[in-house]
Amino acid sequence: MSDKFASMAAFVKTVDEKGFSAAARQLDLATSSVTRLVDKLEKQLGTKLLNRSTRKVTLTSAGEIFYHQAIIILRQLALAEENIRDLDTKPRGKLHIAMPTALGRLRIMPIINQFMHRFANIHIVVHLSDDEVDIQSMDVDIAIRIGPLPSITSLIVTKISSHSRYVVGAKSYFDKAGRPSHPEELNQHKCLLFAYNNGVKNWNFTPKLASESEVFTCSPQPNMVANNSEVLLEAVKDGLGIALLPDWLVENELSIGTIESVLNDFDSNPHSNEVNVYAIFPENRRTMKKVRLFIDFLKENYRLK
What we know:
alpha/beta; D-Maltodextrin-Binding Protein, domain 2; five-stranded mixed β-sheet; 40% helix; globular; DNA-binding; LysR-type_TF_proteobact-type; DNA-binding transcription factor activity; sequence-specific DNA binding; WH_DNA-bd_sf
């Protein structure tokens, strides 16, 4: 590993272990060596990455940015090395995959079926749930999730696809209640709300063409709450109200005219608008060729859907 990679690894480990001494033990180096590597990195970057005290180290603003990028770079380096080491290994065995119910049924399962035809020696175990599964305790190899980028450093995160949502309703509903032209008008409408485990109940809207990222937040008063997006779609089609639903669920219904979308000049989401579909797996799975094969296969074929 070059000096810069060694310095980067020492910095990341110091942050993860919350101190130079603990990082040194993990890296099997002297504490002074770890300190010198981090000092050298800060000098090369021309900025301070860590706030140091006698009790702990904390990230500076620059350190926060560099830390997340350094994790990605180091993981990519490790993955490149491991790809060379196991080129001749034939993938086999169980692959435990967890995913949200509707996304899994409609988008992921057809891709899994294709994958199994190609790699007959890999046996798939599927867990469908809209609850956020505990990957470690459930011994999950790969979890598919929708949302902002997870910040858990013990997990490896790969973006599968971008993700967007539409505000949709039936023509029969809009003909009676009118079509909102601005998020602020949603308070006058019947709304159908997805029940998130974290209690999120707001819908956030950002104008697509605005020079500044102004966010309009709506707190709909729902006449239905459900923890399954397919249930909400059926309610929308029956004219019961407006729902904020994912693109992969409603695009077909929109194309055939079963439902209509409104507020199309806005990006919308119940969380941050920086939302994607991710594959997440523990660090101890990163050496498994079957994990990498599936994620590459998923990324390639998800875009084709």
